[in-house]
Write a structure and sequence with these properties.
Elements (H helix, E strand, L loop, with lengths): L3 H20 L2 H22 L4 E8 L2 E3 L5 E8 L8 E7 L2 E7 L7 E7 L6 E13 L6 E6 L7 E6 L26 E11 L11 H7 L3 E6 L6 E5 L9 H20 L4 E5 L2 E6 L6 H9 L11 H8 L6 E7 L9 H4 L5 E7 L20 E4 L2 H12 L2
Parallel strand pairs: 2-9, 12-13, 12-15, 15-16, 16-17
Antiparallel strand pairs: 1-3, 3-6, 4-5, 4-7, 7-8, 7-9, 10-11, 13-14
Helix pairs in contact: 1-2, 4-5
């Protein structure tokens, strides 16, 4: 198809040719014919579609925010020698990346490597790949879009940055005679009750005597009530944070705390004022990775109050550590923490970002002196403050 410049040359050439022949202006006619000839050559130049095979590879497919990720595109000429004027455009989210492709002999391959944007957390759609050929004068172009079957689309998951933190001690003691409720986490230490078989249960836990008596396959439910349980409330309200970077730091902090517990195979429950985010029971080998994948997709909410998260905690029995991550902006609803904090062995508040210039510094502890408030201004501050709290 013709570019805007090509359409201008076509219309101008036709007009000059008509005027030149109609009024006897030889120079105008020659100039018009030259324009028309240039358009014709441009259409012939771009008329034959380049036959190229395309393969894209993203390394790695999951990356922490700010780390390097690379896209690699391999172009192979399937038939004949390609001409000059080839450009490859890859869409990375809303950002186009344009790459020059040199002429290729038949069967030759060309590899293009380029850095992918990882400054923003989330799932980034890559593609489709667009191969564009233009003539030397830029009058015409031919575009080929590579679909999913041709490897033209892909995704990159940008996850939160994680600091390697110790697990916060919660003071949970062993209960040698077993739990007193059905809220204990699945484990392998203590017999709790019998329940019906669920697809995927370990057949070694089948209680054959009860199964024969009831006619229903029954399994033993074993629990481990000594596992430190971490409940993490992430305040995602836009009003709670002064800047976008403060919110990203809050997600990084929440991910670091949750990752520390999950990689040690401890139960983790993450929720926000909009509802549950993810719950792990500590039994899965991929819990830590699943937490990072889920937190990669968390976005700021328009909720006016953070009280919804604590309402959720009031409806269930909890123990272990309660970690609240918020900003230094609006605090509406955070007073509800007082209603639930006594349900936990330990409570800590992380506040990300700096105070406003006209706001006095916040105290390290709440007025009652019972809930530590750790000010987090960056990854190093998170690591230092958390280590101090862990040994307090």
């Amino acid at each position: 198809m013709l570019s805007p410049t090509g359409w201008g040359a076509l219309v101008g050439g036709a007009a000059l040719t008509g005027v030149g022949y109609g009024f006897g202006y030889t120079e105008a006619a020659v100039l018009g014919l030259a324009g028309l000839l240039a358009v014709a050559v441009a259409l012939l130049w771009t008329g034959r579609a380049p036959r190229l095979a395309v393969r894209r590879r993203v390394t790695p497919r999951k990356v922490a925010r700010g780390d390097r990720a690379e896209g690699t595109v391999v172009l192979t000429s399937a038939q004949g020698r390609t001409r000059r004027g080839l450009e490859l455009t890859d869409m990375c989210g809303d950002t186009p990346l344009t790459l020059h492709v040199p002429p290729l002999a038949q069967g030759a391959a060309h590899t293009v490597r380029y850095a992918l944007p990882t400054e923003r957390r989330g799932r980034i759609a890559l593609g489709p790949l667009r191969l564009e050929r233009t003539d030397p004068l830029g009058l015409a172009r031919r575009v080929r879009v590579f679909g999913p079957r041709e490897g033209g689309t892909d995704t990159l998951l940008v996850r939160p940055r994680v600091c390697l933190l110790p697990v916060l001690p919660s003071g949970t003691a062993h209960h040698m005679e077993g739990p007193t409720s059905d809220t204990a986490d699945e484990g392998s230490l203590t017999f709790h009750a019998l329940r019906e078989y669920v697809l995927g249960d370990d057949l070694r836990r089948v209680h054959w005597r009860s199964s024969a008596r009831t006619g229903t396959l029954m399994v033993k439910q074993l629990v481990d009530v000594s596992l430190p349980h971490t409940t993490l409330v992430l305040d995602t309200r836009a009003a709670a944070y002064r800047t976008e970077e403060d919110f990203e730091l809050a997600v990084d902090s929440a991910a670091s705390v949750a990752y520390a517990a999950a990689r040690s195979h401890f139960p983790v429950d993450v929720l926000s004022e909009t509802g549950p985010v993810l719950r792990t029971d500590g039994a899965g080998g991929n819990d830590a990775e699943a937490l990072l994948d889920r937190l990669a997709l968390v976005r700021r909410s328009a909720q006016a109050s953070a009280a919804g998260a604590f309402d959720e905690l009031e409806r269930s029995r909890r123990r272990g550590s309660l970690i609240v991550v918020t900003g230094t902006g609006d605090t509406t609803g955070l007073a509800a923490l007082e209603r639930v904090r006594r349900r936990f062995d330990r409570t800590v508040v992380l506040r990300t970002g700096a105070d406003a210039a006209d706001e006095p510094p916040q105290p390290h502890h709440s007025p009652g002196g019972e809930v530590p408030q750790l000010r987090i201004t960056g990854p190093d501050a998170l690591l230092a403050a958390w280590r101090r709290e862990a040994v307090r």
